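Q: Now give one record:
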Amino acid sequence: MHNMNWDDLRILLAVSNTGSQSAAADHLGINQTTISRRLRQLEQNYGQPLLQRQRKGYVFTDEANLLIEQARKMEAHMLEIARAQANDRRSELKGQVVVSSTDMVLRYMIAPVLSEFRQRYPGIELVLLSNDEVVSLSHMEADIALRYIRSEQLDIVQRKLITFQYSYFASPDYLDKYPVDESVPLQGHRILKFEHIKYRYNSQQLQDFDNNEIIMRSNHADLLIDACRQGLGIISLQQQYGMQISGLRMLNIPPHRNVSVWIASHKDNRRLPAIHAVKEFIIEASERCARGEFAVEDKQRDLIATGWAEYKVE
């Protein structure tokens, strides 16, 4: 491999992995002319042909296949070194990071990855505050906040994480007593309503419950869920979260509202290593959540199409 470098071998490996020079160019973000030129340069340095031209394209020579195998080993070794270096940097991260959010977001989006977080960042003490209040990041009440509203403060750095769909749920006892006509909007039913004066979507939610009797209001989700389990009324819950609560059934009605979650931190803290690491981890978790990795099992999800579905956490 005299006078050969990794960049040239990376080109050859990309062509092998993607199946063509054009696909390799797209994968590497360079043009196909550069791919062809680098392959010719690699052949010159190697002293033997690596590609055999045929009517339908190219095939690799035996010498090229040997180089590709060596390149794969080099790539694996380099990735191993990179991972080790990343783990060393992560293990050096220390300190306490306070994250404030609602109980639903913490349970559904953060709880499933706590073990992974501990393995990745053993030196960070993660403090999770379940709080329906909008904490003040400027007054250091938390380092990171996951909110349902976008902050208007200029000193807050924020981005949208995920948008949740909300559906209606009720207990089997309630549905036996008060059947739901799924062909029309909810009318004449008893509603358990989550309410918080600082959440802007409340005014919209009130419209959802026109022509229904609101029998209980609370800013405590667990209290309303317990009341729903007892058959007191219908509750609106984030869809996938509600599907995992035993004793509740999801109404076969299209989701009635979308609510976005924003991640926010103070601008002075955005480059602090531990806080930055936690933010990136939460963003990664939200992307996995959006892909459905934290959703209920397929056999449970299939029950939705039959009309009613009861979900239980074993």
Observations:
- The chain has a mean pLDDT of 80.
